[in-house]
Design a protein that fits this description.
- By secondary structure, the chain is α+β, with helices and mostly antiparallel strands.
- Helices cover about 30% and strands about 20% of the residues.
- It has a domain at about 35-110 and about 120-160 and about 180-195.
- The chain has a six-stranded mixed β-sheet, covered by helices on one side. A two-stranded antiparallel sheet has the order 1-2.
- A hairpin with a 2-residue loop joins strand 5 (about 125) and strand 6.
- The longest helix is centred in the first third of the chain and has 22 residues, at about 1-25.
- The N and C termini lie far apart (about 50 Å).
Length: about 200
């Protein structure tokens, strides 16, 4: 039973990794979950609405540059642009490189309050009240601006991280089961989602 529990936990971790890869996938198939790459964009078709011809359905996409020189200014401009569209970004997702570049801008703000220990690392970072997180699957040079009021990960109530029955394949002396989940990423207001691209 301990071996089975271990394999189940490994399967759960593997499925989480697959879901994360699909959430950041640039070339997902029709049966894959909708990705942030195409959902937060100014040209792709989402929900049968072509955002090239229907500009109200375009996310706010801006080109950035070298983070040390203009990264915070790029983020500020994107954030203010989304606020102007009645958005309220409450989470930023980016790469580890950009996250660390943003963290480096905070280093001069550190103040030491103890003579016994020194700590130059923040536990959490925020930008204008929005949580800043990094993900190793995030596309290079991209920062997503998410508004939790307009983006939802729907989970099927009938296929919500469940195992089906164990069966014995005809060519194996073992039993196998599938671990299943039905998901889709969706938005109710694409205009208040955004991303900054081309950061380094």
């Amino acid at each position: 039973m301990n071996l089975l529990n271990m394999k189940q936990k490994n399967a759960e971790r593997s499925l989480r990794d697959v879901i994360n890869q699909k959430l950041h996938g640039a070339a997902n198939t029709a049966k894959d979950i909708q990705s942030l790459v195409t959902l937060i964009d100014a040209t792709s078709t989402i929900g049968d609405i072509n955002s090239t011809t229907n500009t109200y359905w375009q996310s706010l996409v801006a080109a950035g540059g070298v983070f040390a020189a203009q990264g915070v200014a790029d983020w500020r401009h994107e954030y203010n642009g989304l606020k102007n569209r009645q958005g309220n970004p409450d989470m930023l997702i980016t790469t580890q490189t950009i996250f660390e570049a943003y963290e480096a801008t905070m280093t001069p703000q550190i103040r030491y309050t103890s003579l016994d220990t020194g700590d130059t690392k923040f536990r959490d970072l925020e930008f204008a009240g929005a949580k800043v997180r990094f993900d190793d699957q995030c596309a290079s040079g991209v920062t997503y601006f998410l508004d939790s009021d307009s983006i939802t990960l729907f989970v099927s109530e009938n296929v919500n991280f469940i195992y089906n029955d164990f069966v014995r394949p005809p060519d194996q002396d073992a039993k196998v089961a599938q671990y299943l989940v039905g998901l889709e990423l969706s938005t109710s207001n694409r205009r208040i989602l955004g991303k900054v691209t081309g950061q380094s």
